[in-house]
Amino acid sequence: MKILITNIWLVGTGGTEMYTKELALSLKKRGHEVGVYSPELGALAQSIQEAGVAVVDSLDQLKFRPDVIHTHQFRPSLEAILFFPEIPVVYVLHDREFPGDFPPDLPQIVRHIPVDKRCLQRLIVDNQISERACSIIPNWVNTQRFKQKQEWNLHPKRAAVFSNYATKDNYAVAIQEACQVLNIPLDIIGHGAGTATQYPEKMLWKYDVVFAKAKAAMEAMASGAFVILCDFKGLGEAVSLDNFEHLRTYNFGAQILTKPHDSSLIIKELKKYNRDTAKKVSNHLRESAGLEEVVDELCAVYTQAKDQEIESQPQKQANYQSILRLLQKEEGRVKNLQQNLSMENSELQARIQELQLINKEITQSWSFKLGRILTAPLRLLLGKK
User: Fold this and answer.
1) Number of folded domains in the chain?
2) Structure pTM?
3) Are strands 2-6 and 226-231 parallel, antiparallel or unpaired?
4) Closest by alpha carbon to 192, among 232, 221, 153?
5) Which residues pair with 5 in a beta bridge?
6) CA dist., res. 214 & res. 119, Å (int)
7) Are residues 71 and 179 in the same domain?
8) Do residues 44 and 22 lie in contact, with contact meaning Cβ atoms separated by under 8 Å?
9) Which end of the chain has fewer CB atoms at under 10 Å, N or C?
10) Would the pLDDT of 348 be above 80?
């Protein structure tokens, strides 16, 4: 089968980016002809290309006509549909809130695949898509890539925040405070902290506790870590066999991150650490959520989709081409605004530094100090420092 996969960007190690890479390589290994399209390419695109899968940033560069298109996000989905209007599309929805993730309402999309119940709500509630056209296929972990640790510590010795959103100044501060109380060293792995890696499988098995959500949380579980669900949205709970199935129906994601980033609440979850729990959860995930099992399900959907005929709708296609042009124009405008704001922010920061220097010079001058001495009685009378 000839399969085209699209994604909004292929630059870093985000969820849909890694999903795209692992899916493409798995399909290629099965003997399918695979191509990947994204309008924004980077290091990850290069790694996919080096693994033998064609990656393009313009659809006219694709060297085959696909039998089926597997799409993510609105813009690349719409572009692929407009370029191949007669080809059936399987649209996979990964996020309940991301504005770029809403599905185009076009007949080419013959199957909608939400990765959890929350994404299903976005399809059937927000976009009035028939539930009959939707099938939940949860996320996976590549268990060949993420090897399980061989030894589990009785007490946690190392912890990590595994997220591209964590920084040393945001919610990770509360996690750091909690870990310090329990004398557990903490690392941050991700773009926000400047520690992103394309190879987290070489690191995660070293940690006893990992704070993460969604696919990152699953990768940590597969590696044998005791996982506490947490990200910028909020704090969840420690994963155990008792709550595993419920949490997986929500992709271990934002829906269940309902508690505030409070260090006392984080300490409570950390105290649940149990090496037997971590091992049992890891074994269960590796048996029930492996890459190949999920790709089997996707291939079955592709086979069904490939045989469906798509009615050509020239006028509707023309309308959507106009919409796409407007979106591209708006995207350019937003980028210009971002650049202008960045320049203005730099100028503002420079002005603040200049004013701080002037203020320092004034407060250290003899005339200012003399003025403070002379006005001290009056300030004392007024109750001002």
Assistant:
1) 2
2) 0.73
3) unpaired
4) 232
5) 36, 70
6) 13
7) no
8) no
9) C
10) no
